[in-house]
Amino acid sequence: MALSREAAEVFSIHVLGWLAGQEEILPLFLGASGASESDMRTRMADPVFLLSVLEFLMMDDAWVIACCDDLRVPYERVGEARQAMPGGAEVSWT
């Protein structure tokens, strides 16, 4: 099922909230993104930032599984949301 951009953004905000509660993973996200905790609050409406949240989560299958289990959504939702975000569509190099 394809998500709308709005649904993908809402889901990404939920992922951001989940990420904020992960004591071991949050510092990795902050370091990788260069964002601060206050940036997380102020950039929640920024689709580019939300896309970076999804892409960070997708770096580790265990994170995807834990997040989706906690949010009670199918594992595929992360990829579906990423594809619905501006700039998130899969690129075909062939």
Strand content: under 5%
Given helix and strand content, the structural type is: mainly alpha
Instruction: Describe the sheet with the most strands.
Output: none
The number of helices is 6
Summarize the helix and strand pattern as letters.
HHHHHH
How many structural domains in the coordinates?
1
Mean pLDDT: 91
Model regions low in confidence, pLDDT < 50 over at least 5 residues:
none
Overall helicity: 55-70%
Shape: globular
The N- and C-terminal alpha carbons lie at a distance of: 25 Å
User: Strand tally, please?
Assistant: 0
Radius of gyration using CA atoms only: 13 Å
Q: In short, what is this structure?
A:
It is built from six helices and no strands. With 94 residues, it is mostly helical.
Structure, explained:
With 94 residues, this protein is mainly α. It has one domain. It is built from 6 helices and no strands. Helix 1 packs across helix 4, helix 1 crosses helix 6 (77-84) and helix 4 packs antiparallel against helix 6. The radius of gyration is 13 Å and the shape is globular.
